[in-house]
Amino acid sequence: MLIWFLPLFLAILMIGTPVVFALLFAPGFMTWVTGNERDLAILYRNVYTGIDSFPLMALPFFMLAGEIMNRGGITTRLVEFSQAFMGHLRGGLAQVNILSSILFAGLSGSAVADTSALGSTLIPAMEKNGYTRKFAAAITAASSVIGPIIPPSGIMIIYAYVMGESVAALFLAGIVPGVLVGVGLMVMVRLMADRYDLPKAERIVTKNQSISTVESVLSFILLRINLMGVFWAVFRLGSSVAGVARPEGTMLWGTLAILLVLAHFFLIWMRGQVSSDFRIVCKKAVAPLQTPIIILGGILIGVMTPTEASTIAVAYALLISVFVLKSLTWADFFDVLQRSALASAAVLLLVGAAVAFKTIVATSGAATTMADIILGLSENPLILLFLINILLFIVGMFLDAGPAIIILGPILGPIFTDLGVHPVHFAIIMSVNLTVGLATPPMGLVLFVASTVAREKVETIARAILPFLAVEILVIFLITYFPQISMTVPYLADFLGCPPDTGYMACISPAPPAN
């Protein structure tokens, strides 16, 4: 009888009850009806224990770092940087919109923040440049879903915590899918450029740029270190292919010194190829763009956990915004803390309720019943993955990504793990699918945010966004049926937990466990 909490939960949800209350009331009521008062006490105790977690602390810290960066005027710098690189293309401002979303994703990890921050800047600019308002709002909403895919990602932290997966593995697995969504949208814009006569553009570089001495020196150093890192990654890859042992000790430091010198002379050569204003625009984007590098770099080399990386991201965001850029005052900072605290409280309460909900899912037999129903549809994992993608897409039309992951993750995850789908791979399938749902009619949250920013009807934006949604759906199926897309990066970084003698395909796509 306890299993009836699921239909009750759906009924309560459909009448407009907030998700967090539906998550607690439905299983609590059925537990009380069945006379399991002890389980009822455990249920509500799990709300606190679900929040009381060190790894989960990464969530509010990443939200705070993104809020600091956004309030510190970083958005304008990213847009100017994107315009300098892509504004000259046909449909240039649309391409700038997408590139800005990719760059902004590494700072905020939020689709709503992306739509609000970039939309308020780019939608009026696109309209002034000759784009229709509905098209500008549609491309802003469509590209904003990249935010929760490219790390840091709030929904991946939630999934990792609820399902017991590695946050670092999910972060790394989201890099290529996020970039793939962005590239797909860029290709679609280029295909639409001639057919719909999208405005032509010239390379947009803000004139008479200025930069402080401190920021100029900081950018000078960081650019060379970043380029040295790129050269080192290429060197490591070439050494692995050639079967050459990587340098250690004195040889390692000597190699890094040589690569640093090469990076310096390469940048000196590049300096002569561009204008002074273009160089300054690029320099002003260097410091903000270090945030994802610090987060991922620290995790990859093993000097910090994702939670520790989130606190470093906050410290770096404060350092850059207050002391280097001087674009954030301490008075602004208290408002930033308030907004971040309210947003974090809402998410953490939802996570706590989800952990309690997961307890009832485990004890009621609902997961087993759902598994029997799904496996009864077909024995072919490829067909089942197709059907689950359709289900997740429909769910994403009506439910935000966070609550959907919390509700469906504990039910669907074990089913597909038993079918031979790697847990990290399924996490990415689910996360990307439900994230795209944020821009999907009729209830996609970013559609309403874009509608507010653009002062355009949601129905109008929903029609204009359809070609871009088609691209994102195609990417979802590519991710689903080609695990190499999302799993290669965490495999190369050794974050999948496979034994050393496990082959590549056996690791990223394991065989189903024997019955």
From TrEMBL:
Localization (cell) = Cell inner membrane
Query: Looking at the keywords, is Transmembrane present?
Result: yes
Q: How does it sit in the membrane?
A: Multi-pass membrane protein
Alphabetical GO CC annotations of the entry are: plasma membrane
The free-text function statement in the UniProt record for this protein reads: Part of the tripartite ATP-independent periplasmic (TRAP) transport system.
Q: Which residues form a coiled coil?
A: none
UniProt keywords (A-Z) are:
Cell inner membrane, Cell membrane, Membrane, Transmembrane, Transmembrane helix, Transport
Which residue windows are transmembrane per the record? Answer: 46-65, 135-162, 168-193, 214-235, 250-272, 293-320, 340-361, 382-412, 424-449, 461-482
Source organism per UniProt: Pseudooctadecabacter jejudonensis
Put simply, this protein is called Sialic acid TRAP transporter permease protein SiaT
Superkingdom as given in the UniProt entry: Bacteria
Provide the TRAP C4-dicarboxylate transport system permease DctM subunit domain boundaries: 8-485
What InterPro entries has UniProt attached to this entry? DctM (IPR010656), TRAP_DctM (IPR004681)
What GO molecular function annotations does the UniProt record carry, in alphabetical order? transmembrane transporter activity
Taking the first listed entry, what is the main subcellular location of this protein, grouped into a coarse class?
Answer: membrane
